[in-house]
Amino acid sequence: MRNLIKLLPDNIANQIAAGEVIQRPASVVKEIVENSIDAGATKIDVNIKDAGKTLIQIVDNGQGMGPEDAEICFQRHATSKVSKAEDLFALITKGFRGEALASVAAIAHVELKTRERGKDIGTSVTMEGSSIKESTETTCPEGTSFEIKNLFYNVPARRNFLKSDKVEFGHITDEFERVALSHPEIHFTLHHNDNELYNLQDTILKKRIIDVLGKKSSDRLVPIEESTEIVEMKGFVLKPEFSRKTRGDQFLFVNNRYFKSHYFNHAVNKAFEGLIKERTFPGFFLYLDVDPKRIDVNVHPTKTEIKFEEEKYIYSIILSSIRLALGKYNIAPTLDFEREMGFDIPHKMHSQPATEPTININKDFNPFQTTSNTASSSSGKTTENFSKAIVNNGFGTKEAKQEDWENFYTVEDQKEEEVQELVEVESIDENITSFIVKGNYILSPSKSGLMVIHSKRAVEQIVYSGIIKSFISSPIESQKMLFPIEKELSKKEIINWEMNASMLKQLGFDGTVESDILSVSAVPNVLEEETLSSTLDSILETLGHKDIEKGDIAHSLVASIARSAAMKQLNLNSNEAIQGLINQLFQCENHIYTPSNKKIIDTIDLESIETKFK
């Protein structure tokens, strides 16, 4: 019987391992930057070309490596951070598995240049498919430089599954920000296609957060600090009014390592209950310091999932600390038990003597005072035959008469023909259409019953359909602003705006960015002035969705413009105006639902109406 089980060659084993550790270019950036931090670097430069598909270069001024270490570091399970099993329970470094460099070398062309501190000569190693192609001495600065080219060149299926440059670079900036936020003491730079996007000088934690989010965040941060035997916590939360519809600005760190936790996120959201709108999320930057023996970071290959020994207690500490901070800085409503329980007296009244309030009573007032027996109703008819109590709003003569009380609860008998006039339904010619407008709703009779149209959503769909039809062939008509709109942006928002500048211009927006300030000089002419600010916020939020492809972003942006255009006041004061709106709606390919999948039209059939009157 022949043997069926065999050992895999190293290059195939490395490619399999790479599938777990290196999922996209951002994974390479994360792993190598973390190695640079472990090497004691105080400055790390990241250079990217074509969202990492062409080149990823990471240069640091760490301790560097000698010739032997430079070659062995590319082998699987080669690490300087773990020597025995017990070390796994006292990890203070970012990496420890020894798989990152081996995985990168298995699926890319890698050139390493490194020189130890205090040495005159460095080492250059060239790798291709897990094999060393060249290893020589070289002159280079102290520290380490990695150049990763042609990522996934020998795994075409994985390369084909990479998203657009916009999406992949969005993941790179996410990983870069996470590492930069966890180490404010390190100087970081990020370049993409030779453009400098980040230059974060070494600083204190709050300044690093402001450098990443933008200067506008300076007065939005509420400090958090708590020290217990279980965990020491510090950081900041954003004020409730700056909550967002996405989870963009939510960062959790433990021992300076970024991690994800739905459980701890829930604690933060619970602390903001009653302070933020539904379906919005607060921003936070929380840094936990926990004994390494009480956590397990060896759960996931990317080390973003961590198990905590006492997570229930940490949950409670996060919840109470945030609530305390929000109350302390007068963000959340609190009861002040030390305040004097008296009235706040105006300053001008301090010198006036206190006087007892008086109540004036008209002793001659009689609710049954007699008035004229004849009065006019709103319809112009005399009400001579009505009860005096009814005519006088319940007040008759000074001396109450029995007939006033009896007539108060009686209603005048209407003539039979008048009643018939009220309840008889007039026959309507089928060629005549009548409308009723109530709030945002247009009600119109139809052959099957009653048609109800949401007018604002109808306008939204009409504008959306019109823009989509002309968007591909010609730009949307725009109008110049007399005074440009200025908005302060974060680094990521600037990157997203500039990467989509041509598409935004096609949509009618013309804006330039200088010193973190976006100046918009032209906007689509379908927008009203009062909706411009909220529309720009919605567009910036849409551009921030890194997983949306460029074509989908265009549709999302058009939908945002259409939503804003629908906010203007509709002039539905005539049958012609209403009929024109309905005709335009039915010319749209989809006239039932808006771009955000909200219903525009509904029909109440005759059977449903009849059942209400049985």
Q: What can be said about this structure in brief?
A:
With 614 residues, the chain is α+β, with helices and mostly antiparallel strands.
Characteristic terms for this protein:
614 residues, alpha+beta, Heat Shock Protein 90, Ribosomal Protein S5, domain 2, five-stranded mixed β-sheet, 19 helices, 32% helix
Protein model, in words:
The protein has 19 helices and 22 strands. The longest helix is centred in the N-terminal third of the chain and has 18 residues. The chain is globular, with a radius of gyration of 36 Å. The strands form 5 sheets. An 8-stranded mixed β-sheet has the order 5-4-3-6-2-1-7-8. Strands 9-10-13-11-12 form a 5-stranded mixed β-sheet, sandwiched between helices. Helix 1 packs across helix 4, helix 2 packs parallel to helix 6 and helix 8 packs parallel to helix 9. The chain has 4 domains: 191 residues, Histidine kinase-like ATPase, C-terminal domain (Heat Shock Protein 90, 2-Layer Sandwich); 123 residues, Ribosomal Protein S5, domain 2, CATH 3.30.230.10; 44 residues, no CATH class; 182 residues, 2-Layer Sandwich (Ribosomal Protein S8, Chain: A, domain 1), CATH 3.30.1370.100. About 8% of the residues have low confidence. With 614 residues, it is α+β, with helices and mostly antiparallel strands.
